[in-house]
Amino acid sequence: MLFLLVDVLSGESMESWDVIVVGSGIAALRSAIAASDAGATVSVIESGGPGSGQSKTGSTGFAASISESDHMGHVSNTSSAGFGLTNSKVVEQRCSLATSHLIELERWGLNIQRNDSGVPHSAEAPGHSSPRLCYAGDSTGREMVRILEEQCMKRGIPRKHDLHVISVCAEDERIRGIVVLDIQTGVIGSIQAKAVILATEDHSGLWIDEGGSGLGSSLALRAGAKLRGMEFVSWYPFCVPTSNYRLPLSLIDAGARLRKTNGEDVELSGTMTEISISLMDGEHVLDAREVPKSQRAWFSTTEEILSSRFGINLWADVIPIESQPDYAIGGVAVDDQGRALLASNLWLTGLYAAGGSADSGMHGADTIAGNRLLDDLIGGHNAGSSAAKWVKSVGFGGTENMHEMALISEDHIESLSRSESGTSVGAAIAALRRLMNSSMGLERDSASITSCAEKIEEMVKENIQLSDESFVMNTELIRALELQGMLAIARTISSTSEAREESRGSHRRTDYPELDEKHSNPLIIDSEGVITTLN
After folding, report:
1. What is residue 49's predicted lDDT score, i.e. its pLDDT?
2. CA proximity to 108, closest of 456, 480, 386, 377
3. Per-residue pLDDT tens digits for 34-93
4. Is residue 8 domain-resident?
5. Fewer beta carbons within 10 angstroms: which end of the chain, N or C?
6. Are 196 and 383 in contact (CB under 8 A)?
7. Cα separation of 150 and 246, whole Å?
8. Are residue 408 and residue 509 in the same domain, yes or no?
């Protein structure tokens, strides 16, 4: 199979940018805007097509202390939810800047719900001691992405779709660029950059069908970065059974009630995982029949999806719900600027991460409503601003290294395509998800973790057979590459879960049911499986 290596075989000059952003969601777009505003040349690389970032956004709104005299209550609630593993500097930063960033989004056109006085409505929410959750009905995350996409277009920031990033090129612990596969043409090429910001989806796809593959985290791990918090996965309580559809938390604020099937009301409190656990003692339903008609227009998308996919009338029927894994907290270990850390005072120069690719220290061991979008937005802004500042004082380099990485990528994909026997990609991913749900779900013990680790190693050694040998528009090939990254991430999850011999937040060990203060530091893991801590 012939690959067209644009920068090697054709002799053409290599495409170069100050900053490359990998991703399509809130963190990616906000980082691109911040870097552009700070004077850097920026390009956004996306594996999906236009609008793909709007399809997978958080369901719990945006947390900001709009109606409070200060943000300290938000800081306290967030730190409590993290069970001692949050970064106090990051939590303080995010909570203090939440309102100003929300105001900026409103100025750009975000239409959030308001109260009778005309000010943004702050809703009560589990895990928060005061009302501070802001919504745009069932479309908060999607509307935020739309607004940020408009701002990228306004600035002329190029967004390159259907490019799958195969590797991040690092030379002597310094980032040089990326190698990509053009999905539409099958061409492998190198793109040079002084800084790369990884802001892809998280790795919740290890548990659920529509979750992310964790591309950013797996790319960073292979480039020499370290991952943090991989044992923690936040759960979501309002999922329609046998599907991955999540009902928006804002329905509760609008007047919907959570009930047992016998009609008894259920009160919500605690982190998202604690709520999910509380609902596992029986069957529960969400009853939105008493939501005022004046509020129903905010939930038109939910109404349509429930009707078309499940035959449920949101305003006339009660909706069965169950708890499911939702958001994988762990990712690239970064500081408050989004820089990928190698040690407490050392970073993988030029590599940044935000959003689902990063463990910023905002969440710690679990999440509370609204903090995910907050961390995505401010984390993206900080990474973009810091990267733009960094690139002003450095030059491009590593051309030979990038040529070599492109050739290695060519050889790797060639060998993948030549396999004449093996498991199909779809079957392998389904088997991995079954394994993670059975062994690395809400409750774990040493036996299940050890068994999981052994089976992951077996899956790593298995051949994957592709039914389509073409490299043009071959989504099966892309999924095969993603699977390899998912297996690498699964390894880190089993290792850190085994090392954390306690129950803390969303990590629950039945053989170590109590919290143990000797494990009060986040666990850091590298590509060799070596686990350390950063104080």
Report:
1. 67
2. 377
3. 999 999 999 999 987 666 655 455 678 999 999 999 999 999 999 999 999 999 999 999
4. no
5. C
6. no
7. 26
8. yes
Q: Considering only CA atoms, which of 534, 524, 533 is closest in space to residue 344?
A: 534
Residues ≥6 apart with Cβ < 8 Å to 164: 47, 180, 181, 183, 478, 481
Confidence at residue 168, expressed as pLDDT on a 0 to 100 scale: 98
Are 71 and 172 part of one and the same domain? yes
Which residue's entry shows tokens 């529509």? 210
Q: Do the beta carbons of residue 204 and residue 329 sit within 8 Å?
A: no
Expressed as residue numbers, the domain containing 359 is 15-233+328-401
Angle between helices 371-391 and 88-108 (to 10 degrees): 90
Q: Which residues contact 379 (CB under 8 A, 6 or more apart)?
A: 27, 94, 334, 338, 354, 355, 358, 360, 362
Domain closes at, from 401, 422, 441: 401
State the total domains in the chain: 3
Digit-coded pLDDT (tens) for 210-244: 899 999 999 999 999 999 999 999 999 999 998 98
Q: Could you tell me if residue 34 is inside a domain?
A: yes
63 with 123, same domain?
A: yes
List pLDDT tens digits, range 328-352. 999 999 999 999 999 988 999 999 9
Which domain-ending residue is among 386, 401, 416? 401
Residue 110: CATH number of its domain: 3.50.50.60
State residue 99 phi and psi, 5-degree precision. -65, -45
Exposed/middle/buried for residue 295 (C-beta within 10 Å: 0-12, 13-18, 19+): middle
Position 353 in a domain:
yes
Residue 287 pLDDT greater than 90, yes or no: yes
Residues 86 and 132 in one domain: yes
- What is the pLDDT confidence band of residue 2, given thresholds at 50, 70 and 90? very low
For residues 284 and 140, membership in a common domain is answered with no
Q: Can you give the pLDDT at residue 421? A: 81
Q: Give me 364's structure tokens.
A: 């710690």
Residue 1 lies in a domain: no
